[in-house]
Design brief:
The protein has a single domain, classed as Nucleoside phosphorylase domain (Rossmann fold). Strands 5-9-8-6-10 form a five-stranded mixed beta barrel. About 35% of the residues lie in helices and about 25% in strands. Bound molecules: 1-O-phosphono-alpha-D-ribofuranose and uracil. The site of uracil (URA) has 9 residues, from β5, β9 and β10. It holds the Pfam family PNP_UDP_1.
């Protein structure tokens, strides 16, 4: 039974889904990290694949960019395709001085400037938090990665914003002053969907750029440089 945005049948998605923003990153994850990956949805060019890892089923679906898009895909995955755990593997801008380009940020929670959050429970400033079991498993996975030392893994708060181009430096300064690690555009929405729909969610992000970096990742590198984050994400899922 297809939904307005996903052209798949019940059972086409595994209970565990990796959710990158970029459809080409979704294809790369399926082709390079899954066994026997097959396309399960390509409506609007938002690519979805299901395959296996170590014999266990796993899917990947792009979310597109921004919270409205991520909310649509995460909600449909849970409501119509029986998905139970969603791990976003995305890129982010480093905010804290410690979050260097190519480091990994695991979002324990997400602030947001999105009005979607205000609309969720009228009168309530909703707190967007990661699934504790996924977070704990990610922390265990992070202890064993071979690349630690070359690149760091940070656990803490991120900012999920509606505005990629921030022309208000005071906002970034305020976030930094409050210990926010990185800026991205979907984690808060994903965490809100998980709370509302009763599933588990986590966001594992690769720092792709910083204002003060000598060199930021190119668009091609942002598509390809997800391996370290994906290793933590798959570790969190026990895959
Ligand atoms: O690389 P992805 O996962 O798309 O994530 C980040 O990149 C996009 C902005 O360029 C936004 O979606 C932001 O959250
Ligand atoms: O600076 C950045 C980089 C990636 N994604 C964002 O939302 N911001």
């Amino acid at each position: 039974m297809a939904t307005p945005h996903i052209s798949a049948e019940p059972g086409d998605f595994a209970p565990d889904v990796i959710l990158p923003g970029d459809p080409l990153r979704a294809r790369r994850i399926a082709e390079e990290w899954f066994d026997d990956a097959a396309v399960v949805s390509e409506t609007r060019g938002i690519l979805g694949y299901t395959g296996t890892r170590g014999g266990k089923p796993i899917s990947v679906l792009a979310s597109g960019m921004g919270m409205p898009s991520a909310t649509i895909y995460a909600t449909e995955l849970v409501r119509f395709f029986g998905v139970r755990r969603i791990v976003r593997v995305g890129t982010a801008g480093g905010v804290a001085p410690s979050a260097k380009v190519r480091d990994v940020v695991v979002a324990t929670g997400a602030h947001t400037d999105s009005s979607m959050s205000e609309l969720r429970i009228p009168g309530v400033h909703f707190s967007h938090v990661a699934s504790f079991p996924l977070l704990a498993a990610a922390a265990r996975a992070a202890e064993n990665v071979a690349w630690r030392g070359e690149h760091e893994v940070h656990f803490g708060m991120v900012m999920s914003t509606d505005t990629f181009y921030k022309d208000r430096p005071a906002v970034v300064e305020g976030l930094r002053a409050h210990g926010v690690l990185a800026n991205e555009m979907e984690a808060a929405a994903l965490y809100a969907v998980a709370a509302a729909e009763g599933c588990e969610a986590l966001a594992v992000l690769t720092v792709s750029d910083r204002r003060d970096a000598e060199r930021n990742l190119t668009a091609e590198e942002r598509e390809k440089s997800f391996g370290n984050a994906l290793e933590i994400a798959l570790g969190a899922l026990g895959l």
